[in-house]
Amino acid sequence: MAFLTNEEVTELKNQVNIGDLISQYVPLTKSGKNYLGLCPFHGEKTPSFNVNADKGFYHCFGCGKSGDVIDFIKDYKQVGFVDAVKDVASFAGITLNIEDDSTAEKDNPNAL
């Protein structure tokens, strides 16, 4: 298991434009302050997937899925939290210092 502080995760979320990230996976069109597209989480013909880049979240009015950049990657790629954080950081060109339990065990032979 890897360790990240809440501050590191919050900083990462603030540095990534959710519209730019999601548009790598879902075609989006600008609609006022928001972006609209077809929801990647359920089949639809009329766009109900809304991305608010200013507030950093997405919401589908069809299926109810919503969240931030990390939630999107978790749901879209069906990965865990740490893998989603790594993916978002990679997209943003940010290197994270993530301490892994296995590394800690190697450094500390007394670790359980």
What characteristics describe this protein?
112 residues, alpha+beta, DNA Primase, Chain A, five-stranded antiparallel beta sheet, two-stranded antiparallel sheet, 5 helices
Short description:
The chain has helices spanning 6-15, 18-22, 69-77, 81-92, 101-107, and strands at residues 2-3, 29-31, 34-37, 49-52, 57-60, 66-67, 99-100.
CATH top level label: Alpha Beta
User: In CATH, what is the homologous superfamily?
Assistant: Zinc finger, CHC2-typedomain
Number of domains: 1
Residues in helices, as a percent range: 25-40%
Oligomer: single chain
Strand content: 15-25%
Profile the largest sheet. Answer: 5 strands, antiparallel
Helix vs. strand class: alpha+beta
**Helices and strands, in N-to-C order?**
EHHEEEEEHHEH
* SS field, number of helical segments: 5
Mean pLDDT: 88
Dominant shape:
globular
Write down how many β-strands occur, each being a DSSP E stretch of 2 or more residues.
Answer: 7
Q: What is the CA–CA distance across the termini?
A: 13 Å
**What is the CATH topology classification name?**
DNA Primase, Chain A
What does it look like?
The protein is 38% helix and 19% strand. The protein is an alpha+beta fold and 112 residues long. It has a single domain, classed as Zinc finger, CHC2-typedomain (DNA Primase, Chain A, Alpha-Beta Complex). Helix 1 packs across helix 4 and helix 3 crosses helix 4. The C terminus is likely disordered.
